[in-house]
Amino acid sequence: MLLVVGSVALDSVETPFGARDDALGGSATYFSAAASLLAPVHVVGVIGDDFPLAELDFLRRRGVHLDGLERVSGRTFRWRGRYGYDLNAAQTLDTQLNVFEHFEPRLDARALAAERVFLGNIDPELQLRVLEQVQRPRLVCADTMNYWISSKREQLLKLLPRIDVLMVNDAEARQLAGESNVMKAAAAIEKMGARSVCIKRGEYGALLVSGSEAFFAPAFPLATVVDPTGAGDSFAGGFLGLLDRMSGSDLAALRQAVVMGCTIASFTVEAFSLDRLRDLTLAEVRARFEAFRTPTDHEALHASIP
Amino acid sequence: MLLVVGSVALDSVETPFGARDDALGGSATYFSAAASLLAPVHVVGVIGDDFPLAELDFLRRRGVHLDGLERVSGRTFRWRGRYGYDLNAAQTLDTQLNVFEHFEPRLDARALAAERVFLGNIDPELQLRVLEQVQRPRLVCADTMNYWISSKREQLLKLLPRIDVLMVNDAEARQLAGESNVMKAAAAIEKMGARSVCIKRGEYGALLVSGSEAFFAPAFPLATVVDPTGAGDSFAGGFLGLLDRMSGSDLAALRQAVVMGCTIASFTVEAFSLDRLRDLTLAEVRARFEAFRTPTDHEALHASIP
């Protein structure tokens, strides 16, 4: 069973292809929607009394446990952002923590027994406090961002030795390691304690570095990209969802999980908010996972250089 | 036999890792140094009487034919550029065409019989004039840039139907097609007449789009990147060099050629100017080409999603 701690939010997003106000968002939401196609998910988070609960019905139907999602009085976490034609870079226009400001994650008996954990992009202190409660996690992934890397570095460094896969983008890896070369940055982060580093590169795919091994998966080639919000969290959902489904954690399993992460993230970005994930089926996911063969079929090539 | 037309230049480059003044550079130079490890190359270009000819001795020793490299009175083409820590983006500080300004490519009998042609990044009018002279080319690749796309669009559109593989970066593909999505841009460029489009993405590798097929190769994971100048032209050299060596032009051969392009380009960027290419051996190239297996081994992964 998977445990995710993160935000359940209302996002207002503008891209060259349209705009949405107060649409369903948040790291725990995207993660759950993706992962629940593959494995059971337990959510820990907080929403305000303004949150439209019916929006989460599709997650419940998919077997996501929402008992750990507290509802308190106040306004739900809100994020407002804008993307230009370079969909790799979001410009944050406004962040309102609201009920998230005093969020104190509480884990029930079910959550404490989780085998695989995703620590969404929240205060590393909270991430650590959650992790300390989980009894015997087999695999822990964490996300973080520039804000925590600079303002809560010490806490982040305490967290890293307990992390199996740190999931960050190029810039975050560079900032955390103080090293411009991404391969050297990944090696430095491993020295800080993380077992592996997964570098998310938006439209360029993802790179997994584990010891001396590097593995690349491109983003699935898409002719329609509408809103990249949530791609990273969906990636994490596909990644951990597959590992939970396969009960795997060796390097071969991690590689397969990277491809699954890219697969599900490629659906996320085809529509605003969670619109594409809402009705996504495992059959569709399988088909696209299979379709990854063609653009990444390097194996047959290496037979013979005359 | 390969024919390349392009610049043989003196570059002054500054990166976070050092600087060089009036070092050997130019698209035809990088291309030849890369391609000649795999196949015979004939260069068409022009240098001034200030050019240090001994700098090209290593190319001659590698079997590069330089009879088509005219030496005229005047100064050699010079480029001055700077890279920040984001080595994907060069800032051009100065371009002096010098003897290149009145360059009129002349092809001798040997050049006219070339089977594979690389039209380096020069005025599309010149590219077309060279191509019209080649008797029966089996495969033609061309590079171009933002300047030509905006100032010589009409001539470029005349060239495209004669091109097998257009090699451009993301931004150039978008500009040429007037389309922000790279997959749609590639499809649009194919409609303009190019048979395939190869999109060079610096540290993110390369993407080959040919009809409905897409193929990705990552950049080889490097812990040392010193100077990205010439990576694209070395890529083209590895790409066409392998195709010439294998006499191949089907999709499987093109894919293998993309990996070879990435392989040789990965050596280029490890040092300033052509320093790393100068003594590079085919054995080293083979070894790194083989080492590409690990980070791109997707094939074994697709066996079974439970």
Key descriptive features of the protein:
homodimer; 306 residues; alpha/beta; four-stranded mixed beta sheet; 12 helices; globular
Overview of this structure, please?
The structure is a homodimer of 306-residue chains. The first copy, chain A, has 306 residues and is α/β, with parallel strands linked by helices. Chain A has 12 helices and 14 strands. Chain A has helices at 27-35, 57-61, 109-112, 124-133, 146-151, 153-159, 170-177, 182-191, 231-246, 251-268, 275-278, 282-291; strands at 2-5, 9-15, 18-25, 41-47, 64-65, 69-71, 78-83, 90-96, 116-119, 139-143, 165-169, 196-200, 206-210, 213-217. In chain A, the strands form 2 sheets. In chain A, strands 1, 4, 5, 6, 9, 10, 11, 12, 13 and 14 form a 10-stranded mixed sheet that branches. A 4-stranded mixed sheet of chain A has the order 3-2-7-8. In chain A, helix 1 (27-35) runs parallel beside helix 9, helix 7 (170-177) crosses helix 8 and helix 9 (231-246) packs across helix 10. The interface between A and B is large, with 50 and 50 residues.
